[in-house]
Structure to design on (141 residues):
């Protein structure tokens, strides 16, 4: 009986309004301001290719175990750069055309882009020291 009452209280606190569209992330943490999910090809063109800042592009998939390890680690390292670099996340299952265009043959694949050009790339997991070196090379620090 007590469990049912606790469950009812919990459910009554759960918001029941409309949810954000899939793929859209609304957050206020510092890391999230530097990271965004690519919505489609034109979004990629506008926010990645035409970006005045260097961009790290994380090609990943929901089913990819290594991606689930690398993604948060990379987001943390991008946040440490204090806005000098941004991070775009591209789900290869949703954006197969972009994966093909950028020759992604395995995930996770991470591209470093500057002025719309790919200047560096790696495939697989890296530790924080390697990610820091990758980012510093991209921003020229």
């Amino acid at each position: 009986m007590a469990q049912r009452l606790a469950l009812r209280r919990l459910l009554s606190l759960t918001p029941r309004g409309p949810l954000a569209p899939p793929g859209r992330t609304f957050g206020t943490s510092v890391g999230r301001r530097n990271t965004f999910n690519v919505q489609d090809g034109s979004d990629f063109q506008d926010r990645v290719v035409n970006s005045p800042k260097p961009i790290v592009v994380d090609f990943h998939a929901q089913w990819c175990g290594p991606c689930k390890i690398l993604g948060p680690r990379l987001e943390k390292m991008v946040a440490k750069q204090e806005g000098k670099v941004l991070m775009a996340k591209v789900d290869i299952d949703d954006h197969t055309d972009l994966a093909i265009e950028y020759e992604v043959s395995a995930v996770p694949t991470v591209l470093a882009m500057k002025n719309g050009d790919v200047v560096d790339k790696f495939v697989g997991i890296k530790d924080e020291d390697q990610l820091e070196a990758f980012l510093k090379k991209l921003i020229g620090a």
